[in-house]
Structures are given as C-alpha cells and as structure tokens.
Amino acid sequence: MLVKKKLFRILLRLIIVVLSLCSNSLVFAQSDNYWSWNFNSHSELLAGSVVGGSAGSTSIFYNPSLIDNDSIPTLSVSANVLSLQFLSADNIAGDGIDVDKFYFKVQPRFVAYVFPTKNERFGLEAAILSPGSEEVNFTIQHNDETDVIQRIEGLETYTGYLKYSRRYDDTWAGFGFSYVLSDNFSVGVSSFVSIKTMKYTYQQDAQAFQEKDSVLVDGQKEAKYIVESIFKEELKYWDLSFVFKLGGRYKTNNDRFSFGINVTFPNIPIYGEGDIRKSYTRSNVYDNQDNNFTSNESNLGYDQKVKSHVKTPFSLAMGAQYNTKSRKNFISVTAEYFHSIDPYAIASLSSPESSNDMFNNANENPFLAYYSDAKSVTNVGVGFKQYISPVLFLLGGIRTDFTVASSNSIGTIIDQDNINRIHLDKYHFSFGPVVKIKKFRVLTGIQYTYGRNNDMQQLVSFTDPVEYIPSINQSLLGKRKNNVGASLNEIALFLGVTVEL
C-alpha cells in the first residue's frame, strides 16, 4: 500500500510539472488539421494507425479498449518534441509579395500512467496530452512608387504593412478504462477535460503620400496630406469542455488479426471566455466618382469576458492490424471520418450592457463577431513494425492530414468575421527505432511533414491599390486574387520513455 501511495504522489508531481510546462510554452489558433498531433510515442511513429492494436500508452486517446490490463503499472513520459518548420506563402499580400518563415518549436509533452489492477479483465489509465498545438507569426512591409491619389499630379509613395500572429493550444487531461468481455472482445471508455486557448492579432496599414511640402491639384498648390487606412483586430479566448470516447476491439484466437473501432463524440461545453477588440481608421480618402472627400472614420469596438465556445466534431475511426506468423512483425491501417460543423460563433457578445464600443447597436453588429465552420474529411494512416532483435525493433508509417477549411479563402477584409488562416493539406512520414533496456523502453525517431495548397485567396493586396472603391467601402488596397500558393516542410525529432514500475 505504501508503494502504491508513493507511485501516485510521483505521478501527481509529474502531471503538475507537465501542465505548467504546457501552459508556459508558445502555442498557436483553432486548428484546420485534426491529425497534426505530436504525442512523442511509438503510436506517432506508426502514423497513428493503432486503432486496431498496439496503441500502448496512447490507447486512452486512440482506442480505450486497448488500455493494458496487466498487473504491472507503467509510466510513459515524453521528452521535448523538437521541430523545424519552413513555411512559405507566395503572393499572400499581393502579386510578388511573399512570406518565407522558419520556426523552431518545442511541442507539448505527453505523460500517461497505467494503474495496476487486481482484476485481470479491467484496465485503468490516466493521461495528459495535447492533440492540437500551433503557432504562426509574420510581418510584411511593402513600399512602392505609384499613382494612387488621382486628384494629385505625379506619383505617390505607397506603403503597406501587415502583421499577423496566431497561437493555439488544446490540452487534454483524463481517465480511461477497458474491460475484457471474452478472449476475443474488449471494450473501453475514456473521458477528458479539454482546455483550449488562443491569442490572435492582425493588423494592416496602408498609406499614400507625396514627399514634397506641397502637392499640385489641377495646377494649383495645396498643402501636403497623407491618405491612410488602418484595420486592427485582436481575439483571445479560453474554452473548457468535456470529451468522451468509446472504443472496441476484436482479435482472433491466434492473435494474428485484430480489428478496432473508436468513436469520439462532439465536445460538451463547460465554460469559456474571450476578449475581442477591433478598430478601423480612414482619413483623407477622396471619392473620384463623387468628386469629394469621404468622411474620416475612426471606429473602435471591444468587449471583455464574452462567451466563447469552440466545437469539435463527431468522428469515427476504424483500424485493423495483421501480425506475421511469428507475431514479431505487423502491418496496420486506420481510417477516421470527421463530421462537418455548421457555421457558428466562436465568440459572441455577452450583453449590450457589457459591450464597450462606438457602434449604435453593438450587440447585433457583426463587426464584433467571429465565426467558424468545418467540412467533413477522412484521413488514413498506415504503419508497420519490423523486428530486429529481442531488444530492438523499427517502426514506421505514413498518414494524411487534410484541411477541414470549407473554402480556400485565407480571410476576409469586408466581412471581418473569420480568423485568418493558411489552409494546408498535410502528409506525415515517420520512422524510428525502439530499444528495450531492462524495464525501460526508449523511443527515438523522426517525422517529416509536407504541406501544400494552391489557389488560395490573398490575405490582402498591396499591389495595384485603388484609393477608394465605394461599392465595398475599401480604401488604398487592390483586388484580392486567388493565386496564393503555400507550402510547409517540417522535421520533428522524438524522444520518449516507457518504464515498468
């Protein structure tokens, strides 16, 4: 009994440490890809194709019916997952205005503990993991000499500035149990508390002016002035919810074939809060159709502690595993279907009394609203195990990771109701050895990720700017085109340890 209490205290300290590390790490916004997790475990090297078997310490996530029901307790702890990311997006801010960024990231940790049980049919596990963690930020500065202000003779200096930052993290903590119904069938259930956090900021500035003390209008000198259009937005939120999973597994009598199924139900909201702030400024903009200056604008809207909720979809995963006659090698496959999500408000204003802004009817104004949706997707993963010796074997796999974005639009300038994101279809390739050293199982490996998308809509256009377009109330920007090509190349390094206590 004293030994069990000591082990429980050790586990509790580890959980506290992992939570604190995850909360202090830089993270990135609501994810477009459901299969981008990095658990730093052998299931990652198998490309997540473990629903049919061999899920190990990650059974609580992939298929709770696979939770080990051995009487020997095991502790799985991953070290840092280091990743090098190379992201590029051509024409994202106009024709020829690109983004090329390099990111060095430390992915969130993973810890799991399988409890000893007296009943050999019953398995119990606790875990903390991070199914989603993303970070993107970049800055663009564009300068040009062009004729933007038609009423002024000569060329103007035109500047465009874009600053983008998005951080998102989803951390789960929960328990799961399995029960062996017979020699062939087992079932399992797991439940988690999910905490999602995000911080998103976006700013675009455009200016046009002549570098002289005075300007010429119809041959007459007038005082120099600067035409300016600025838009800024910020969104921060945290969202707490429940997630439940139900799994089952069938295996043949000779253990050479097994089939598994795992159902993840839509998350159940508990509570969430967010802060929203948006501003738009326009000055000295001339309407050439009306032959008059437009009214200067300075609009500000913000609200604190608004209600927030982030939805995750229903999903159904099915997997199979085939073992060789020696049972030392196997090949596995898993497919998971994710249901679509209809458009909904991520953050909604709490009440007219709590809204502080300069709009007449702020509680109904879409200027202070953010919406999201997702299309249905199906991802597939294939993995294999190659036996080398009693202390060494190799794991490898490949999996798809398609974007759930319902359109190829990165964001909107007119409606300002979406979180701007670069959507990518990803493909993950993983490989690495697992070494057994007495009671320890040490995992190392590498994962290469390739992402690509073409013909996306530009985030903003600083090329061919027009001073004012009355029909869409747009100033100092060009027409956005669908010619953005984005690519991602990422290399992640794994190191994890499982020990029998």
Protein described:
- This protein has a single domain (2-288, 326-500), classed as Porin (Beta Barrel), CATH 2.40.160.
- Strands 1-4-5-6-7-10-11-16-17-21-22-23-24-27 form a 14-stranded antiparallel β-barrel. A two-stranded antiparallel ribbon has the order 8-9. The chain has a two-stranded antiparallel ribbon with strand order 13-14.
- With 501 residues, it is mainly beta.
- It has helices spanning 2-24, 42-45, 59-62, and strands at residues 74-78, 81-90, 99-107, 111-115, 122-146, 156-180, 185-209, 214-217, 220-223, 227-251, 257-264, 268-283, 286-287, 292-293, 297-308, 315-323, 330-338, 341-348, 355-357, 370-374, 377-389, 392-401, 425-437, 440-456, 466-469, 474-477, 484-500.
Task: Kindly list the characteristics that best describe this protein.
single chain, 501 residues, mainly beta, Porin, two-stranded antiparallel sheet, 27 strands, 6% helix, elongated
CATH class assignment: Mainly Beta
CATH level-two architecture: Beta Barrel
CATH topology: Porin
Assign a percent range to the helix content: under 10%
The radius of gyration computed from the alpha-carbon positions, rounded to a whole number of angstroms, is 27 Å
- Report the average pLDDT across residues: 87
Detail the poorly predicted runs: 1-29, 351-364, 412-416
Shape: elongated
Beta content: over 45%
- How is the biggest beta sheet arranged? 14 strands, antiparallel, barrel
